[in-house]
Amino acid sequence: MLAALLMTTVAARADVFTSSPAPLQESSQNVVVYFHADESGVAGLQNLSSSTELYAHIGCYTNKSPNTWSYVIGTWTTNTDNKKFTYVSNNLWSLTLGDMRTYFGITDADEHITKLCLIARNKAGNVQTADCFIDVMEDGFQMQLTSNASSTVLLNNTTITFTLNTTQTADLSISVNGSQIASGTGTTLTKDYSFTAKGSYEVVGKATANGETLTETINIVYISNSPQANYPGGVPQMGPVKNADGSVTFCIAAPGKSNVMIVGSWDDYQSLDKNVMSYQDYNGYRYFWTTVTGLDDNTPYLYYFTVDGATHVGDPYAKLNLDGYSDKWLDDTVFPDRPQYPYSLYGDGRQISVYQGNFYPYNWQVTNFEIPAHDQLLIYEMLFRDFTGTEGASEGNGTIAKAIEKIPYLVDLGVNAVELMPVMEFNGNNSWGYNTNFYFALDKAYGSPAELKRFVDICHQNGIAVILDIVFNQSDGLHPWYQMYPIASNPFYNATAPHSWSVLNDWKQENPLVQQQWKDCLKWWMTEYKVDGFRFDLVKGLGTGSTSAEYGSTDGYNAKRIAVMKQIHGYLTAVNPNAIHINEFLGDTTEEVEYCNDGQMNWNNQASLSQQYAGGLSSTNTGYFSSTACSRPWGGCVSYQESHDEERVAYYAMKNGNSTDIKNNLETRTQRLGALTAMQLLTPGPQMLWQFIELAADETTKNGSDNNTDPKKVIWSYLDDENRKGLHDTYRDLLWIRRLNQDMFVQPGGEVSQNFVFSGSIRRTAQIKNGTKEIVLLANPSASSRTISFASSYITEGNYQIMSYSHGIAEPVPTFDGTSLSVTIPAHCYAIYATKSVAATESIASDLTAGPAVYGADGRIVIEGDYNRVEVYNARGMQMPSLSVPAGMYIVRVDGLATKVIVK
To answer: In the prediction, which pLDDT does 12 show?
Structure first.
């Protein structure tokens, strides 16, 4: 009786979709697919009434397209009878295919179905299952052994039903650990077996017909309970930690769970009782840990966790992760030596983590990079996916390696920071990256960890800081902590976001384990990859509280959110006191001021005014690129005309310009964009460019009002167009004016003064002074040529230079009356004048008034004439080993006399 009481019968069916007949073959007739909603894990598809409409998204793999959904019936939103499920009983639905080749319309005699590809969804298409597959076997004698077990890892005494099906009459048997438990003749054999003792079991089905014997095995393991034992040292550290003796301790936080087992490649992926992890309850949370010995530092080892015998997850702290579904689509040339997902063991349904003690070693050339002053940051926002790749195409095949080849372009352009859109392991292989699943792992679609380290190092060698965009508001659905719990009782996620900016799966910011994840994640990227800071996405969602009442205001002032962001800022500065911290908050002024006072910067979205000006509205006030004009502390805002979230300014002008000239004339548009950029970049404080704005990128980034995250065209060929190249050169001039004259773009005071008049419809002016050095910007926003007079302080006929002016026009030479200058500026254009003491981009002030001629050429510094000693220093002050150098600005000392040189 006691044994009977302890027994449990597994009533759950292991598969979301099954078929009749089974096994399924291409020649099978009257094929019916069954959807078992109770096994889907999708509450919105369970326990539905018979009147509910459910549909299949269905296609197939074939021998000619072995990993691609082919012959898909209709589209995602097509609701036709040939995709509509029929209600059978509660949580059981059927779809009749009949003859599969006819159903899919396959006419090529040499093409054969290898799998059915299935998703069940509701009528609206906004509730769905994961991708599921049913094997289609070759014709002939075939067998299939299945069970109704929801897991092959047992924690309790369990009865499992095993079923052996064949495609023709055969002698059938089922055995457990070599002992036969059932036999018979026919096409089906079913037997229950009770597992009552801990250990490993091999269940073998055998079928013999016409002298041919087939076998199939299911392995079952009945494991021990996780024992209580404290983590070495008493304080659990999540993730794999290498110990002094060479062993590795793996640890995962799993509150509310009773059993976790690690399954590793070092044990041939066997589910072994010895790998049941110990647990420790610490500060109210449960951690599971185990120590593994004998791992080689230079060998990648694969592993995953089985939680409570049923849920298989990767490691939240994995430094590299393998995705069974997505990895098979990766281009093998991008990360050639990446660890391979074990498809032969697990199909494509799991997340498997990688541990390697010596994690992709790299010989750093720069170990003490000095981050540029935050108020001098000139940032280039970049999406690896679309920055490089197939020219003129929208294939999304850009990589880190290809981006490295373009670093000289960035150096020549003049930016001193790159902000990378999220590179952490995201869902799929084609994304903006804001659907993160594993926060410590580089997404393999872009390349290897060693390549990212090289990218950062080469940027640092050229004076460019690297900032990572990171998403702490939400994750996608493959994060292990999301997979381990029903959403209604998940300790890590809110079932319903308590704020009004809900995206994907909303983190519980008040959970100390979530905050520890953030702290450890930031430290990992800053130490292992030496990145210089972060841009935090959707800060409005980073407050605390599980209900809207607890959370407080989303768009207004929120003290609890400020506390979270100050805590996160502390995580950064504990690693590097000068770390860059940028928030995408775009909200309450008082709250942003508090962030600025804490050393954080905030995105300053000036897309609307930029679009208005670019479109021809002369009266647009372009003065809000300034932090102080936005009532924020000086230098506290990172201002931009456009970002990945905003429509392209050039596209807006082309489609919505207020004149035919602006809409249809690329020269006019790029001249107007150049004048707008002059006003932006001559505004002191950090400024940002979204990739290819300098080429007047004009492919729309929107689907209506929503972002279009599809791959965009790679447009390096735009440099061949004289107008786009002209705008590029404007950007280059302006960025280098900023870089070479940083003393004039500091906070006003003492000898530094800055005066901007960027409103009104007649002209735009900027006057920047430091002592007797002076820069003046004159811009004509109108549609006709205008003569502008300006009273400067130090610019005179004998002491001036034209630093930059719009492409496509004659050099705008001024006339002078003392320090008053007058000049005619064509419509939509600009010109910048300065005293000779201001460092210009082409004729840079030099101490070399005689002696050798020094100038930059392609990839090298040329010195013509006799000299004894030469020293070359880059923008960071690092001495260069030779005269062959990357593009950039250099200080060259020839026999003790210095000059500045630009190498293109």
So the answer is: 31
Q: Which two tokens stand for residue 629?
A: 């004009």
Structure tokens at 654: 């082309």
Report the C-alpha gap between 311 and 151 in whole angstroms: 8
488 φψ region: left (φ > 0), alpha (ψ -120 to 50), beta (else): alpha
Which DSSP helix (H) or strand (E) runs through 381? strand 378-382
Identify the pLDDT of residue 140: 93
Distance CA 149, CA 143 (A): 19
Contact indicator for 453, 529 with CB cutoff of 8 Å: yes
Q: How far apart are CA 890 and CA 795, in angstroms?
A: 27
Cα dihedral across residues 170, 176, 182, 183: positive or negative: positive
Q: What is the pLDDT of residues 568-614, one digit of tens each?
A: 999 999 999 999 999 999 999 999 999 999 999 999 999 999 999 99
Rounded to an integer, what distance in angstroms lies between the CA atom of residue 895 and that of residue 871? 9
Look up the pTM and report it.
Answer: 0.87
Say which residue the tokens 């100038």 belong to: 855
Closest CA to 385 of 314, 445, 319: 445
What is the spatial distance between Cα 110 and Cα 63, in angstroms, rounded to a whole number? Answer: 9
Residue type, 141: F
Rounded Cα distance, 418 and 414, in Å? 11
Q: Rg (Cα) of the chain, in Å, rounded?
A: 33
d(CA 275, CA 156): 17
Any idea which of 393-402, 618-627, 870-879 has the lowest mean pLDDT? 870-879
Q: What is the pLDDT of residues 409-440, one digit of tens each?
A: 999 999 999 999 999 999 999 999 999 999 99
Exposure string over 721-757, b if 16+ CB within 10 A, otherwise e: bebbbbbbbbbbbbbbbbbbbeebbbeeeeebebebe
**pLDDT at position 884, please?**
87
Q: What is the DSSP letter of 325?
A: T
